[in-house]
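Structure in, sequence out. Go:
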């Protein structure tokens, strides 16, 4: 079961919409995927689940266990201030080092309001995952000006849809 991680805790995020679209693409390829949305993290996790408190917050443990049991991941990563969201780094910092991600595989999707499509955010995240020993699929779609390409829950930009579809196929074979 592939885990799709929504890389922000913003309510009604476009990242969540993309996660649903991605999950559907995988379903069409006969592959099950579960969405983990960082907005569902316990609101106090920064001060109750990290470092010396590791393992003490049941809500965070549920997320942690799902990461530990997973072997392939998709990260939907919005560009915030020229990088990926801080909550995603804090979430990664709460995982057991180095085993939660080591020798696992992931695919990254970037999105932004501007013209970057989260390219720099994906580079930053790739550095971290390589440091942790996780293999990152080299094909990383960057969905720029995302608001122009999403209508309700549909990705209306045909190129973007093809990029996600191609990546989903590559991730299955990765
Ligand atoms: C805190 C914050 C910082 C942002 N910084 C950038 C940025 O540096 N470049 C950019 O193009 N868009 C930026 N945006 C816009 C987001 O990239 C855009 O709204 C996002 O891709 C949508 O993701 P979301 O709905 O999943 O949060 C920012 C948005 C937020 C909330």
């Amino acid at each position: 079961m592939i885990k799709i991680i929504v890389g922000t805790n913003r309510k009604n995020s476009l990242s969540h919409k993309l996660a649903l679209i991605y999950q559907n693409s995988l379903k069409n390829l006969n592959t099950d995927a579960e969405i983990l949305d960082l907005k569902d993290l316990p609101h106090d996790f920064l001060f109750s689940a990290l470092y010396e408190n590791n393992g003490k917050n049941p809500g965070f443990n549920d997320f942690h266990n799902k990461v530990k049991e997973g072997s392939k991941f998709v990260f939907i990563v919005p560009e915030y201030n020229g990088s990926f969201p801080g909550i995603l780094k804090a979430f990664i910092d709460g995982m057991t080092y180095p085993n939660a991600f080591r020798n696992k595989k992931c695919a990254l999707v970037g999105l932004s309001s501007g013209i970057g499509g989260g390219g720099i955010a994906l580079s930053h995240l790739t550095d971290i995952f390589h440091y942790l020993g996780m293999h990152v699929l080299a094909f990383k779609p960057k969905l720029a000006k995302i608001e122009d390409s999403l209508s309700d829950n549909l990705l209306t930009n045909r190129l973007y849809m093809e990029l996600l579809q191609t990546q989903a196929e590559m991730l299955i074979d990765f």
